[in-house]
Specification:
24% of the residues are buried. This protein folds into 2 domains: 48 residues; 223 residues, MetI-like (MetI-like fold), CATH 1.10.3720. It is mostly helical. It has 14 helices and no strands. The chain is 76% helix and 0% strand. Helix 4 packs across helix 8.
Length: 295
């Protein structure tokens, strides 16, 4: 009798589990779809508004129906003296690429030194890095600008590039990643074989850290590309303006504000970021997943 009851209950339990699984997947897909729509909505509105006229945008700011004014907006944008897409792209790319390389490499090197070596002030140094992480960047902005002004280093791209070497958040992330991904036996083997410390780092440690480095490189590039306030207060010459500054200048004249041109400028600024994200987004997922599992 017990066997018959078990035989009857088994299909019921299986059907119940299957139903629960379907409900769970439906909820997950629904939530993910909502988040995807919320994330893509600003970009969709931006691209659609780039094809609309200023009068249409003023009448209805939100629309999903493209119009036929894209070429007219581009031509009007080219006539504006404050907007030079080539100069802005060049300046933004030089600064962002340099910041990304310095940020990721030297932060990885610092994290490796904290993880791989034993020295007296190791814990104090790492504690200092953690403390600096808690300070917002705006706290040091006045002192930084004052120093640059006294040294006559305003309008100098290096003042946006060189400070990127000190990146506490990236150092913290890299150290946490190394603790789960790097085995010191590999490093010791390289030392026994006679490899120098820099060769060990560049040929052994860096390949292991590639997912984490790629993840932080994307964050550093996007953050530097979108940086608006610091270049605004440092740069006075138009030839040094980055894309965010040029787009902000399009919004300056309240009596002749061409919203279509503004959205074209915003789309031009965001396009490189979208392309880079689509090409390297898998590294964000893999880097964060590996860091969370191994850390």
């Amino acid at each position: 009798m017990a066997t018959n009851e078990e035989t009857i209950k088994k299909p019921v339990v299986m059907r119940s589990r299957k139903r629960d699984s379907i409900i769970f997947k439906t909820v997950i897909y629904t939530v993910c779809s909502i988040f995807a729509i919320l994330s893509l909505w600003p970009f969709i509105c931006m691209l659609v508004n780039a094809t609309r006229s200023t009068a249409s945008i003023q009448a209805n700011a939100v629309s999903l129906i493209p119009e036929k004014y894209l070429m007219a907006n581009i031509k009007a944008l080219k006539k504006m003296k404050t907007f030079d897409a080539l100069t802005g792209m060049k300046n933004s790319f030089i600064i962002s690429a340099s910041v990304t390389i310095l940020n990721v490499y030297f932060s990885s090197l610092t994290a490796y030194a904290i993880y791989a070596y034993e020295w007296k002030l190791k814990k104090a140094f790492f504690g200092l890095i953690m403390g600096i992480m808690m300070l917002p960047g705006t706290v040091t902005m006045i002192g930084f600008y004052s120093t640059c002004y006294k040294l006559h280093l305003t309008d100098n791209k290096l003042m946006l590039i060189l400070p990127a070497i000190a990146a506490p958040m990236t150092v913290f992330f890299m150290k946490q990643y190394l603790e789960g991904a790097l085995s010191m036996e590999i490093v010791e083997s390289a030392r026994i074989d006679g490899a120098s410390e820099f060769r060990t780092f560049n040929t052994i440690v860096v390949p292991i850290m590639k997912p984490a480095m790629a993840t932080q490189a994307i964050f550093a590039f996007v953050g530097s590309w979108n940086n608006y306030f610091l270049p605004l207060i440092l740069f006075n010459k138009t030839k040094n303006y980055t894309m965010p500054i040029m787009v902000a200048l399009l919004n300056g004249d309240i009596y002749r504000r061409e919203y279509g041109c503004i959205y074209v400028g915003l789309s031009t600024t965001a396009l490189p970021l979208i392309v880079i994200y689509l090409l390297l987004s898998k590294y964000i997922v893999s880097g964060i997943a590996l860091g969370s599992v191994k850390g």
